[in-house]
Design a protein that fits this description.
Blueprint: E1 2-5, H1 6-11, H2 13-21, E2 26-30, E3 35-40, H3 73-76
Parallel strand pairs: 1-2
Antiparallel strand pairs: 2-3
Length: 80
C-alpha cells in the first residue's frame, strides 16, 4: 500500500487510477500533520453465484426487530 498527500493525488489522479487498476492501494493523507483520511482500493466484483457471508458479526452485535417488521430474509438480503 502506498501513501499519497491529497495535493499529489489531485496532480497525479490518472496515474493513481492506472495503478489501482493494476491492484495497488493508496492511503490519502491530508493536512500539515499528514493524517490518513481516505483509502483508494481496487474494485472487486463478487463472483457470480458466490454466496454472501452471513453471520460475521455473530456475538458482536445485537439486533432487535419491531413486532410489526414484515420483511422476509430474502427481501432483507436483496434476493427477491
Amino acid at each position: 500500500m502506498k501513501t499519497l498527500p491529497a495535493g499529489e493525488l489531485k496532480a497525479q489522479f490518472s496515474k493513481v487510477l492506472e495503478e489501482v487498476q493494476k491492484g495497488e492501494s493508496f492511503t490519502i493523507l491530508q493536512g500539515k500533520d499528514k493524517k490518513p483520511v481516505a483509502m483508494i482500493v481496487p474494485f472487486r466484483t463478487p463472483a457470480k453465484g458466490s454466496p454472501r457471508q452471513i453471520g460475521i458479526l455473530e456475538g458482536k452485535v445485537k439486533l432487535k426487530f419491531a413486532p410489526d417488521f414484515k420483511m422476509t430474509e430474502e427481501e432483507l438480503l436483496g434476493l427477491k
